[in-house]
């Protein structure tokens, strides 16, 4: 299960949206269900040794890899739908900073419902993340959603902050920046300028539905999505 430095990209699947409890062995056993696996590579942080939320599964043939993508994409592992596609098609996602914090979530809200609720405002990069207890997998009642534009993120904040989703009013705001001091949040003017330049150069990330289904429709009132 070691990394193959000369990995056959055409026979390799990208496996994303992995729960923190996933191990090399679990990915190996899972992907083995659809065909012979040559190698598994689960990138890990050098210091913490925690994986980074994605893995690569190399099959013996390209046809096996394509079959694995069709069968495995969207299945739930530790309660989270994994994203499986051909590694040769996987592009590096550019984080423009349109990242939202969603707090006070009802315990019944899962990643799919969060996606459907926010996707009415614009393209979402990958599946939303809900913070969960590593032992019980219970929701910690907050999560994160990343849009492909600040216009979409601004619209979601304006329309959804303090709106009820199931039985609780959500708190929706820009998430704290990991690299910032003094509690600075995303959505700054500097980030918006960078995003505008990226749009001019056609290097913005592309949103894709990780569930392969259409988002929820707008309500008949037309001003807010139907929750």
TrEMBL record:
PANTHER family given in the database record: SPLICING FACTOR 3B SUBUNIT 4 (PTHR48030:SF3)
Instruction: List the Gene Ontology MF annotations in alphabetical order.
Output: RNA binding
One Gene Ontology term, aspect cellular component = nucleolus
Ranges for the RRM domain?
11-89, 98-177
Source organism, top-level taxon: Eukaryota
InterPro entries attached to this UniProt entry: Nucleotide-bd_a/b_plait_sf, RBD_domain_sf, RRM_dom, SF3B4_RRM1, SF3B4_spliceosome_assoc
Q: Which UniProt keywords apply?
A: Nucleus, Repeat, RNA-binding
Q: Which family does it belong to?
A: Belongs to the SF3B4 family.
Keyword Nucleus recorded: yes
Q: Where in the cell is it found?
A: Nucleus
UniProt-recorded name of the protein = RRM domain-containing protein
Listed under GO biological process in this entry are: mRNA splicing, via spliceosome; positive regulation of mRNA splicing, via spliceosome
């Amino acid at each position: 299960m070691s990394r193959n430095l000369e990995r056959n990209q055409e026979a390799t699947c990208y496996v994303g949206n992995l729960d923190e409890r996933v191990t090399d062995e679990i990915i190996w056993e899972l992907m083995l269900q659809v065909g012979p696996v040559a190698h598994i590579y689960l990138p890990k942080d050098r210091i913490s040794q925690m994986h980074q939320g994605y893995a690569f599964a190399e099959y013996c043939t390209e046809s096996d890899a394509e079959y694995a993508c069709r069968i495995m994409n969207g299945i739930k592992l530790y309660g989270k739908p994994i994203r499986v596609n051909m590694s040769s098609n996987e592009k590096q996602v550019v984080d423009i900073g349109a990242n939202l914090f969603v707090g006070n979530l009802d315990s019944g809200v899962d990643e799919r419902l969060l996606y459907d609720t926010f996707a009415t405002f614009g393209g979402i990069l990958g599946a939303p993340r809900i913070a969960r207890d590593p032992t019980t997998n219970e929701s910690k009642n907050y999560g994160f959603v990343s849009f492909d534009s600040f216009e979409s993120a601004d619209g979601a904040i304006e329309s959804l902050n303090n709106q009820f989703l199931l039985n609780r009013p959500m708190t929706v705001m820009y998430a704290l920046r990991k690299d910032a001091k003094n509690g600075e949040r995303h959505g700054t003017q500097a980030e918006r300028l960078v995003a505008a330049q990226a749009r001019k150069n056609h290097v913005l990330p592309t949103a894709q539905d990780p569930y392969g289904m259409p988002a929820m429709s707008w309500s008949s009132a037309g001003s807010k999505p139907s929750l």
